[in-house]
């Protein structure tokens, strides 16, 4: 791979890497025929981001013929290349990215003002392909807004806030945070914002749903969208299926896929499915944790896997199952009973999300089969059920 | 070594009348002044504190005053030495009764005292300073005044140590470049701190002047061409590559940030000299100098 980025595009590239750094710790680099793909996924695999820079984005873009190459590296070390982001536009004239496969080095050369030449030789690891499976076309609700609108919206939420709930009806969109029941009343703050449809460039609603997702990644993409001045498109469907945020222009495309919190109706459905699966193997160290929240979350995160995911999923599903405590089965049943008792109250669709799921709500991000993309599923599947705790336990 | 401590004296003694302190620094009687071997006054204490900040990486500072001015030395691990030179002309008043007056104080404490009024950087607000020393065994006395309020600080002095002589003389200098500090600020602020060393290559041929780091995620090089408009002087006679401990190089970033020009020199032993030209608030020029020993010989 040998490519050259010049002028303002250097900053665009740097900002894309910055926004990907809000997702995960590693940057996956894959030079493709249709452009350079930069991707990242978080440790719980509940958030995924991808930027594809078309060959036209570069002044020069050449990739070796007929040999697939992809690698990953610490995103921090790539950020270090563009550390002086604020002055980047003024100081850097040209950025040359070159892969030396023999030396296992990815070299970034920045040609700066006053003849200063900065060369960063970064080591990398080989990696599998990282590819999220989603199909934007199939989403019921589609919006497009200027980055300013969304930035002005999220600015009202405290930076410590993890998740935000987005709801829509035919002519309005709401953003609100959820205040936990056990939160200290003196500190609790509920913020709710309402945006009218005419504030959006595009506002198409087919399902009056609300989804809860992480703010951090949205903020990350906003950093990019604001600097590139590109509108953000939002695609979402129902609670539990991922929300897709995307930016596009003629030479680049960025997609962020974020897990959303499953709601109770989903969970009940999942519980019935769970009942048909064989009891899982013995427990491991998860038993020490807040078992209630863990098991419930596990439950929601597990279910869609085997029943809806098609051929590539079984090995993954299997591995996740092996981590499930034996108690889960019983707990699930207990939970379903409680669920029955609560049923009357829980039918209210405006109910705030059940906070119990939050620790692990990222689980059920595998889209139901109806939304499966036509793309071939590659060897490493992202956004399948995998919990943060799983990762840490490894 | 005696334990260092800082004495703040708010009692207004030293025949100091707080009731008459509209011009407190000049109201001291002639008799008081006669006791001191060194008296130095500044209208703006920041002119001293700023330059001292450029060499603050250890607590002990050796003060050496001569009729030419004040030299403050800070050392680390016998491998690094930083000197700040404040010429006599910088001071509004500079009286010295001996050829050489030497003492050692805790630099952090001195800097705290100099900014005792908050060290405001607002224009028109400045702390006036009168620094007095009576001689061996006496504390360093600071009279600080801002907005008609006076603080007297007494900082205990210590036995002065002899600064290390790095024997860096210009006749042994192999390579020398003078750069505008602006061009080095960014590379220094970006230096990969996971690298144990900063490698400096100076050469009459390519890469001319190169800074390199070798960190966890790979290596990085910063190359300055000899014809860069930031390069004020390029006089390299022989290719030299030396490594210096990053931990020793880091403090010099403070001096770089203050300076407008920097001279980088290496001698035949690979010793590094960094000289910084610092312009203070009033446009006067001071110098800060760093000496650093090279790390283990590179093959």
Automatic annotation (TrEMBL), chain A:
<keyword id="KW-0540">Nuclease</keyword>
<dbReference type="Pfam" id="PF04139">
    <property type="entry name" value="Rad9"/>
</dbReference>
<feature type="region of interest" description="Disordered">
    <location>
        <begin position="262"/>
        <end position="394"/>
    </location>
</feature>
<dbReference type="InterPro" id="IPR026584">
    <property type="entry name" value="Rad9"/>
</dbReference>
<comment type="similarity">
    <text>Belongs to the rad9 family.</text>
</comment>
<dbReference type="GO" id="GO:0030896">
    <property type="term" value="C:checkpoint clamp complex"/>
</dbReference>
<dbReference type="GO" id="GO:0031573">
    <property type="term" value="P:mitotic intra-S DNA damage checkpoint signaling"/>
</dbReference>
<protein>
    <recommendedName>
        <fullName>Cell cycle checkpoint control protein</fullName>
    </recommendedName>
</protein>
<keyword id="KW-0539">Nucleus</keyword>
<feature type="compositionally biased region" description="Acidic residues">
    <location>
        <begin position="337"/>
        <end position="348"/>
    </location>
</feature>
<dbReference type="GO" id="GO:0006281">
    <property type="term" value="P:DNA repair"/>
</dbReference>
<comment type="function">
    <text>Component of the 9-1-1 cell-cycle checkpoint response complex that plays a major role in DNA repair. The 9-1-1 complex is recruited to DNA lesion upon damage by the RAD17-replication factor C (RFC) clamp loader complex. Acts then as a sliding clamp platform on DNA for several proteins involved in long-patch base excision repair (LP-BER).</text>
</comment>
<dbReference type="InterPro" id="IPR007268">
    <property type="entry name" value="Rad9/Ddc1"/>
</dbReference>
<feature type="compositionally biased region" description="Polar residues">
    <location>
        <begin position="367"/>
        <end position="382"/>
    </location>
</feature>
<keyword id="KW-0378">Hydrolase</keyword>
<dbReference type="GO" id="GO:0000076">
    <property type="term" value="P:DNA replication checkpoint signaling"/>
</dbReference>
<dbReference type="GO" id="GO:0071479">
    <property type="term" value="P:cellular response to ionizing radiation"/>
</dbReference>
<dbReference type="GO" id="GO:0008311">
    <property type="term" value="F:double-stranded DNA 3'-5' DNA exonuclease activity"/>
</dbReference>
<keyword id="KW-0269">Exonuclease</keyword>
<feature type="compositionally biased region" description="Basic and acidic residues">
    <location>
        <begin position="263"/>
        <end position="273"/>
    </location>
</feature>
<dbReference type="InterPro" id="IPR046938">
    <property type="entry name" value="DNA_clamp_sf"/>
</dbReference>
<keyword id="KW-0597">Phosphoprotein</keyword>
Automatic annotation (TrEMBL), chain B:
<keyword id="KW-0234">DNA repair</keyword>
<dbReference type="GO" id="GO:0030896">
    <property type="term" value="C:checkpoint clamp complex"/>
</dbReference>
<dbReference type="InterPro" id="IPR003021">
    <property type="entry name" value="Rad1_Rec1_Rad17"/>
</dbReference>
<dbReference type="GO" id="GO:0000077">
    <property type="term" value="P:DNA damage checkpoint signaling"/>
</dbReference>
<comment type="function">
    <text>Component of the 9-1-1 cell-cycle checkpoint response complex that plays a major role in DNA repair. The 9-1-1 complex is recruited to DNA lesion upon damage by the RAD17-replication factor C (RFC) clamp loader complex. Acts then as a sliding clamp platform on DNA for several proteins involved in long-patch base excision repair (LP-BER).</text>
</comment>
<keyword id="KW-0539">Nucleus</keyword>
<protein>
    <recommendedName>
        <fullName>Cell cycle checkpoint protein RAD1</fullName>
    </recommendedName>
</protein>
<dbReference type="InterPro" id="IPR003011">
    <property type="entry name" value="Cell_cycle_checkpoint_Rad1"/>
</dbReference>
<dbReference type="InterPro" id="IPR046938">
    <property type="entry name" value="DNA_clamp_sf"/>
</dbReference>
<comment type="similarity">
    <text>Belongs to the rad1 family.</text>
</comment>
<keyword id="KW-0227">DNA damage</keyword>
<dbReference type="Pfam" id="PF02144">
    <property type="entry name" value="Rad1"/>
</dbReference>
<comment type="subunit">
    <text>Component of the toroidal 9-1-1 (RAD9-RAD1-HUS1) complex, composed of RAD9A, RAD1 and HUS1. The 9-1-1 complex associates with LIG1, POLB, FEN1, RAD17, HDAC1, RPA1 and RPA2. The 9-1-1 complex associates with the RAD17-RFC complex. RAD1 interacts with POLB, FEN1, HUS1, HUS1B, RAD9A and RAD9B. Interacts with DNAJC7. Interacts with RHNO1; interaction is direct.</text>
</comment>
<dbReference type="GO" id="GO:0006281">
    <property type="term" value="P:DNA repair"/>
</dbReference>
